[in-house]
Amino acid sequence: MPACLGSQDAWGLAWRTSQAEVRAGGAVLRVSTQVHNMAVGVARVILLGLFGPVLCLTDVQTPESSGSQAQQCYSFQHIYFGPFDLSNVNFSNVSCPQGCSEAVLSLNTGYRSSVTLVQKGCWRGPLTGQMLSDDKSLPPDYSVVRRCATDLCNANLQTHDSLPNLSPAPNPPTLSGTECYACVGIHPEDCTPEKSRRVQCHQDQSVCFQGNGRMTLGNFSAPVYIRTCQRPSCTIKGTTSPWTNIDLQGSCCEGDLCNRDSLTQPFTSASDTAAPRVPHVTVLLLVVSLLGGALGGPLGLSS
After folding, report:
1. Which of 119, 147, 196, 266 can pair with 181 through a Cys bridge, CB separation 3.0 to 4.6 Å?
2. Signal sequence: where (predicted)?
Protein backbone atom coordinates (compact mmCIF):
# COMPACT_ATOMS: atom_id res chain seq x y z
CA MET A 1 0.00 0.00 0.00
CA PRO A 2 1.46 3.40 -0.90
CA ALA A 3 2.39 5.75 1.91
CA CYS A 4 -0.35 8.14 3.05
CA LEU A 5 0.24 11.68 1.81
CA GLY A 6 -2.05 13.31 4.34
CA SER A 7 -3.51 15.62 1.67
CA GLN A 8 -6.48 16.05 -0.64
CA ASP A 9 -4.37 14.51 -3.41
CA ALA A 10 -4.01 11.33 -1.37
CA TRP A 11 -7.78 11.25 -0.82
CA GLY A 12 -8.51 11.82 -4.49
CA LEU A 13 -6.07 9.08 -5.52
CA ALA A 14 -7.52 6.61 -3.04
CA TRP A 15 -11.09 7.47 -4.12
CA ARG A 16 -10.32 7.00 -7.80
CA THR A 17 -8.51 3.74 -7.01
CA SER A 18 -11.38 2.36 -4.96
CA GLN A 19 -13.86 3.29 -7.72
CA ALA A 20 -11.84 1.35 -10.28
CA GLU A 21 -11.51 -1.61 -7.95
CA VAL A 22 -15.23 -1.68 -7.18
CA ARG A 23 -16.04 -1.64 -10.88
CA ALA A 24 -13.46 -4.38 -11.50
CA GLY A 25 -14.92 -6.41 -8.66
CA GLY A 26 -18.42 -6.07 -10.08
CA ALA A 27 -17.24 -7.22 -13.50
CA VAL A 28 -15.46 -10.26 -12.06
CA LEU A 29 -18.44 -11.25 -9.93
CA ARG A 30 -20.62 -11.23 -13.02
CA VAL A 31 -18.41 -13.61 -15.06
CA SER A 32 -18.94 -16.98 -13.45
CA THR A 33 -18.94 -18.76 -10.14
CA GLN A 34 -15.94 -20.69 -11.45
CA VAL A 35 -13.60 -17.76 -10.76
CA HIS A 36 -14.20 -17.84 -7.01
CA ASN A 37 -10.56 -17.37 -6.09
CA MET A 38 -10.26 -14.32 -8.32
CA ALA A 39 -13.42 -12.85 -6.78
CA VAL A 40 -12.02 -13.34 -3.29
CA GLY A 41 -8.81 -11.63 -4.37
CA VAL A 42 -10.74 -8.72 -5.81
CA ALA A 43 -12.80 -8.48 -2.62
CA ARG A 44 -9.60 -8.08 -0.65
CA VAL A 45 -8.49 -5.33 -3.00
CA ILE A 46 -11.86 -3.65 -2.57
CA LEU A 47 -11.45 -3.67 1.20
CA LEU A 48 -8.01 -2.13 0.85
CA GLY A 49 -9.42 0.48 -1.51
CA LEU A 50 -12.27 1.33 0.85
CA PHE A 51 -10.22 1.45 4.05
CA GLY A 52 -7.20 3.10 2.44
CA PRO A 53 -8.86 6.53 2.19
CA VAL A 54 -10.00 6.29 5.80
CA LEU A 55 -6.47 5.59 6.98
CA CYS A 56 -5.07 8.43 4.88
CA LEU A 57 -7.68 10.87 6.13
CA THR A 58 -6.47 10.44 9.70
CA ASP A 59 -3.34 12.39 8.74
CA VAL A 60 -5.17 15.31 7.07
CA GLN A 61 -4.82 18.44 9.18
CA THR A 62 -8.18 20.07 9.91
CA PRO A 63 -9.13 22.63 12.58
CA GLU A 64 -10.65 19.81 14.63
CA SER A 65 -7.84 17.25 14.25
CA SER A 66 -4.87 19.60 14.43
CA GLY A 67 -5.84 20.78 17.90
CA SER A 68 -6.05 24.43 16.86
CA GLN A 69 -7.86 26.61 19.36
CA ALA A 70 -11.12 28.39 18.67
CA GLN A 71 -11.01 32.12 17.96
CA GLN A 72 -12.18 34.81 20.34
CA CYS A 73 -14.72 36.97 18.51
CA TYR A 74 -16.75 40.07 19.24
CA SER A 75 -20.44 39.35 19.83
CA PHE A 76 -23.14 41.92 19.06
CA GLN A 77 -26.47 42.34 17.28
CA HIS A 78 -28.82 45.28 16.99
CA ILE A 79 -31.47 46.84 14.75
CA TYR A 80 -30.92 50.44 13.68
CA PHE A 81 -33.35 52.93 12.14
CA GLY A 82 -31.08 55.24 10.22
CA PRO A 83 -27.27 55.51 10.32
CA PHE A 84 -25.36 53.42 12.88
CA ASP A 85 -22.04 53.99 14.66
CA LEU A 86 -20.38 51.24 16.71
CA SER A 87 -17.18 53.11 17.54
CA ASN A 88 -18.17 53.60 21.20
CA VAL A 89 -19.86 50.22 21.73
CA ASN A 90 -18.33 47.80 24.24
CA PHE A 91 -18.69 44.37 22.64
CA SER A 92 -18.77 41.12 24.58
CA ASN A 93 -16.52 38.24 23.52
CA VAL A 94 -17.43 34.71 22.50
CA SER A 95 -15.38 31.62 21.59
CA CYS A 96 -15.98 30.43 18.00
CA PRO A 97 -14.74 27.12 16.50
CA GLN A 98 -15.16 28.16 12.83
CA GLY A 99 -13.94 31.74 12.93
CA CYS A 100 -15.57 35.13 13.37
CA SER A 101 -18.16 36.95 11.31
CA GLU A 102 -19.60 40.41 10.93
CA ALA A 103 -22.48 41.32 8.69
CA VAL A 104 -24.86 44.14 7.82
CA LEU A 105 -28.25 43.91 6.10
CA SER A 106 -30.08 47.14 5.26
CA LEU A 107 -33.43 47.90 3.62
CA ASN A 108 -34.20 51.45 2.51
CA THR A 109 -37.24 53.27 1.14
CA GLY A 110 -34.96 55.13 -1.27
CA TYR A 111 -36.09 58.32 0.46
CA ARG A 112 -33.84 58.52 3.54
CA SER A 113 -35.55 55.94 5.75
CA SER A 114 -33.97 52.57 6.55
CA VAL A 115 -33.92 49.50 8.77
CA THR A 116 -30.47 47.97 9.28
CA LEU A 117 -29.53 44.71 11.01
CA VAL A 118 -25.96 44.53 12.34
CA GLN A 119 -24.48 41.31 13.70
CA LYS A 120 -21.06 40.20 14.95
CA GLY A 121 -20.24 36.78 16.37
CA CYS A 122 -19.39 33.23 15.32
CA TRP A 123 -19.36 32.22 11.68
CA ARG A 124 -22.33 30.02 10.81
CA GLY A 125 -23.35 28.48 7.54
CA PRO A 126 -21.30 27.55 4.47
CA LEU A 127 -17.79 28.88 4.02
CA THR A 128 -18.48 29.90 0.42
CA GLY A 129 -21.54 30.91 -1.55
CA GLN A 130 -22.97 33.30 -4.10
CA MET A 131 -24.58 36.62 -3.26
CA LEU A 132 -27.20 37.70 -5.79
CA SER A 133 -27.88 41.43 -5.86
CA ASP A 134 -29.16 44.15 -8.16
CA ASP A 135 -28.15 47.75 -7.57
CA LYS A 136 -31.32 48.88 -9.37
CA SER A 137 -33.71 46.80 -7.24
CA LEU A 138 -36.60 48.46 -5.43
CA PRO A 139 -36.94 48.92 -2.56
CA PRO A 140 -33.16 49.38 -2.44
CA ASP A 141 -31.19 47.15 -0.08
CA TYR A 142 -27.62 46.20 0.70
CA SER A 143 -25.89 43.24 2.31
CA VAL A 144 -22.28 42.61 3.32
CA VAL A 145 -20.96 39.47 5.06
CA ARG A 146 -17.37 39.05 6.22
CA ARG A 147 -15.57 36.05 7.73
CA CYS A 148 -12.13 36.08 9.40
CA ALA A 149 -10.11 33.59 11.41
CA THR A 150 -8.00 35.45 13.99
CA ASP A 151 -8.85 36.64 17.48
CA LEU A 152 -11.19 39.66 17.59
CA CYS A 153 -10.86 40.19 13.85
CA ASN A 154 -14.54 41.04 13.28
CA ALA A 155 -14.12 44.75 13.98
CA ASN A 156 -14.05 46.24 10.48
CA LEU A 157 -17.73 47.14 10.06
CA GLN A 158 -18.11 50.04 12.48
CA THR A 159 -20.26 52.76 10.89
CA HIS A 160 -22.92 53.35 8.29
CA ASP A 161 -20.16 54.69 6.04
CA SER A 162 -19.39 51.07 5.09
CA LEU A 163 -22.70 51.00 3.19
CA PRO A 164 -23.42 52.68 -0.16
CA ASN A 165 -25.94 55.50 -0.38
CA LEU A 166 -29.33 53.80 -0.83
CA SER A 167 -31.19 57.13 -1.13
CA PRO A 168 -29.42 58.90 -3.98
CA ALA A 169 -30.92 61.99 -5.57
CA PRO A 170 -32.18 61.35 -9.10
CA ASN A 171 -29.88 62.32 -11.92
CA PRO A 172 -31.16 64.27 -13.74
CA PRO A 173 -33.17 65.70 -10.82
CA THR A 174 -36.61 65.15 -12.35
CA LEU A 175 -39.73 63.80 -10.68
CA SER A 176 -42.58 61.63 -11.93
CA GLY A 177 -45.34 63.80 -10.47
CA THR A 178 -46.57 61.00 -8.19
CA GLU A 179 -46.71 61.45 -4.41
CA CYS A 180 -46.50 58.44 -2.07
CA TYR A 181 -46.15 57.63 1.60
CA ALA A 182 -42.63 56.50 2.55
CA CYS A 183 -41.66 54.70 5.74
CA VAL A 184 -40.05 51.48 6.97
CA GLY A 185 -40.15 49.83 10.39
CA ILE A 186 -40.33 46.53 12.25
CA HIS A 187 -43.86 47.04 13.63
CA PRO A 188 -47.05 47.95 11.72
CA GLU A 189 -47.52 50.97 13.98
CA ASP A 190 -44.08 52.23 12.93
CA CYS A 191 -45.39 52.75 9.42
CA THR A 192 -48.91 54.10 9.61
CA PRO A 193 -49.82 56.83 7.09
CA GLU A 194 -49.79 59.33 9.96
CA LYS A 195 -46.15 58.47 10.79
CA SER A 196 -45.03 58.26 7.16
CA ARG A 197 -43.39 60.98 5.12
CA ARG A 198 -44.99 62.25 1.93
CA VAL A 199 -42.41 62.08 -0.84
CA GLN A 200 -42.32 63.18 -4.45
CA CYS A 201 -41.33 60.11 -6.45
CA HIS A 202 -38.34 60.01 -8.77
CA GLN A 203 -38.93 60.13 -12.52
CA ASP A 204 -38.93 56.37 -13.17
CA GLN A 205 -41.20 55.67 -10.15
CA SER A 206 -44.79 56.53 -10.94
CA VAL A 207 -46.67 54.11 -8.66
CA CYS A 208 -46.80 53.60 -4.89
CA PHE A 209 -45.82 50.44 -3.01
CA GLN A 210 -46.84 48.94 0.33
CA GLY A 211 -45.82 45.63 1.82
CA ASN A 212 -44.34 43.54 4.59
CA GLY A 213 -41.84 40.73 5.01
CA ARG A 214 -38.84 39.55 6.98
CA MET A 215 -35.16 40.43 7.03
CA THR A 216 -32.81 37.57 7.96
CA LEU A 217 -29.13 37.81 8.81
CA GLY A 218 -27.77 34.42 9.87
CA ASN A 219 -29.76 33.43 12.97
CA PHE A 220 -30.89 37.04 13.49
CA SER A 221 -34.14 38.18 11.87
CA ALA A 222 -36.85 40.82 12.16
CA PRO A 223 -40.20 41.57 10.51
CA VAL A 224 -40.35 44.60 8.27
CA TYR A 225 -43.16 46.90 7.06
CA ILE A 226 -42.63 49.40 4.27
CA ARG A 227 -44.29 52.05 2.10
CA THR A 228 -42.50 53.84 -0.72
CA CYS A 229 -42.44 54.69 -4.44
CA GLN A 230 -42.03 51.99 -7.06
CA ARG A 231 -41.65 51.52 -10.81
CA PRO A 232 -44.75 50.61 -12.87
CA SER A 233 -43.46 47.03 -13.22
CA CYS A 234 -43.74 46.67 -9.42
CA THR A 235 -40.90 44.15 -9.43
CA ILE A 236 -39.68 43.28 -5.94
CA LYS A 237 -36.18 41.85 -6.05
CA GLY A 238 -33.82 41.96 -3.10
CA THR A 239 -30.37 40.70 -2.24
CA THR A 240 -30.12 37.00 -1.38
CA SER A 241 -27.24 34.81 -0.25
CA PRO A 242 -26.66 31.69 1.87
CA TRP A 243 -26.32 34.01 4.91
CA THR A 244 -28.79 36.85 4.27
CA ASN A 245 -32.25 37.29 2.84
CA ILE A 246 -34.98 39.90 2.50
CA ASP A 247 -38.33 38.30 1.70
CA LEU A 248 -40.88 40.99 0.81
CA GLN A 249 -44.54 40.71 -0.12
CA GLY A 250 -46.40 43.72 -1.41
CA SER A 251 -48.56 45.44 -3.99
CA CYS A 252 -48.51 48.62 -6.04
CA CYS A 253 -51.22 51.16 -6.74
CA GLU A 254 -51.69 54.18 -8.97
CA GLY A 255 -52.61 57.62 -7.70
CA ASP A 256 -51.21 60.05 -5.17
CA LEU A 257 -50.90 58.67 -1.62
CA CYS A 258 -52.74 55.49 -2.58
CA ASN A 259 -50.44 53.27 -0.45
CA ARG A 260 -52.35 53.92 2.77
CA ASP A 261 -53.84 50.44 3.33
CA SER A 262 -53.08 48.16 6.27
CA LEU A 263 -49.63 46.58 6.12
CA THR A 264 -50.76 43.46 7.99
CA GLN A 265 -52.90 42.22 5.12
CA PRO A 266 -51.66 39.20 3.12
CA PHE A 267 -49.66 40.12 0.02
CA THR A 268 -48.22 38.09 -2.83
CA SER A 269 -44.71 36.91 -1.99
CA ALA A 270 -41.89 38.30 -4.09
CA SER A 271 -40.58 34.75 -4.43
CA ASP A 272 -43.84 33.76 -6.17
CA THR A 273 -43.05 36.11 -9.04
CA ALA A 274 -39.34 35.35 -9.19
CA ALA A 275 -37.85 33.25 -11.96
CA PRO A 276 -38.25 29.53 -11.16
CA ARG A 277 -35.18 27.61 -10.12
CA VAL A 278 -36.24 24.33 -11.72
CA PRO A 279 -33.11 24.06 -13.93
CA HIS A 280 -30.96 23.77 -10.79
CA VAL A 281 -33.15 20.93 -9.51
CA THR A 282 -33.10 19.26 -12.92
CA VAL A 283 -29.32 19.36 -13.01
CA LEU A 284 -29.15 17.89 -9.50
CA LEU A 285 -31.55 15.08 -10.39
CA LEU A 286 -29.60 14.40 -13.57
CA VAL A 287 -26.35 14.11 -11.63
CA VAL A 288 -27.97 11.77 -9.11
CA SER A 289 -29.43 9.69 -11.93
CA LEU A 290 -26.09 9.40 -13.70
CA LEU A 291 -24.32 8.56 -10.45
CA GLY A 292 -26.87 5.88 -9.65
CA GLY A 293 -26.52 4.40 -13.13
CA ALA A 294 -22.74 4.40 -12.95
CA LEU A 295 -22.71 2.65 -9.58
CA GLY A 296 -25.73 0.44 -10.18
CA GLY A 297 -24.37 -1.22 -13.35
CA PRO A 298 -21.02 -2.54 -12.10
CA LEU A 299 -22.41 -3.52 -8.70
CA GLY A 300 -25.25 -5.50 -10.22
CA LEU A 301 -27.93 -3.17 -8.79
CA SER A 302 -29.51 -2.22 -12.09
CA SER A 303 -32.31 -4.28 -13.56
Report:
1. 196
2. none
